[in-house]
Specification:
Layout (H helix, E strand, L loop, with lengths): L11 E12 L2 E13 L4 E5 L6 H8 L8 E11 L11 E3 L5 H7 L4 E4 L3 H4 L6 H13 L3 H14 L5 H4 L9 H12 L6 E5 L7 H18 L2 E6 L2 H7 L2 E6 L2 E7 H6 L4 H8 L50 E4 L2 E3 L9
Parallel strand pairs: 3-8, 3-9, 6-7, 7-8
Antiparallel strand pairs: 1-2, 1-4, 4-5, 9-10, 10-12, 11-12
Helix pairs in contact: 4-5, 4-7, 5-7, 7-8
Length: about 350
Amino acid sequence: MAGKLPEIEPILDIQGLKVHFFTEDGEVLAIEDVSLRAYPGETLGIVGESGSGKSVTALSILQLIPQPPGRILSGKVYWVRQKGDPESRGKKVNLVELPLSELRKIRGNEISMIFQDPMTSLNPVLTIGDQIMENILLHQGVPRAQAKEKAVKLLELAGIPDPSARVDDYPFQFSGGMRQRVMIAIALASNPSLLIADEPTTSLDVTIQAQVLDLIKTLKKSFNTAVILITHDVGVIAETCERVAVMYAGYIVEYSDVYTIFKNPKHPYTIGLLGAIPDPTSARDEPLTVIPGAIPNLIHPPSGCRFHPRCGHAMDICSQKIPMLEEISPGHQVRCFLFSKEA
């Protein structure tokens, strides 16, 4: 596990992001006050149970949440432009306020995303090559023959056997693991500076999971790409990430380098997540940690700290106020009254 925090400037800086969904059943308070940074050549992991707000955070970066019913109510998503004319390159822009015409120049070009399910993300009636080439033709303006040549190279880079032949195949002719590799090839078609991977290994078996994660790590090192990896699997986080944000019910509850999170977790939710991982060195009859209850309904979330109904350390203040995300040691932030000056 790598642990040293970077001293370089972030390529992505999310500040106070707040996202709600206005549905027929009520207002879903999906994301509240989320702040994150991504650095070149580094993988930031976002971990938490389903419904914690991980995917909504990722989709909000590129304004990909359905609007309506979703709406970014406040916050800033600063991005340092990596491409474009000399005046644009190096300029910091707020993606939340960027016109759609300008945002399209960044989507799939400077920032790419790998979605959870490659079968629903790939177009079943277009060849794999056509889907990779679409990105290349849109953003690079090269001739079609050159775009196809690059598509073959990307498939080879992604570990697809016999890429020259398979470039003309359709998605149904690929296995789940190979389809995920195709999604990575599409995401890398324009040499993005940030790759957002939303649960990229969820539907894959353990062996294929490891291969896909190794591929992402290799590509990150080769191109100095920043990666945001979203997962509910803390084992994947341990093997892949330099820094970790633990999310619960729309809030970041703990944020630090991966070594600190695993060796010295502080938030009761983080401790519960890590305690639920089977330890092969422990006795067979040693029980795993169980976090009671479930993620709350975010139309009617609990008052105060959203974790307090499930927390064994809850105090009176926990149901009355929302704790701030406070730094308890250099680079280690926790949102909990156990470590707050307010308590």
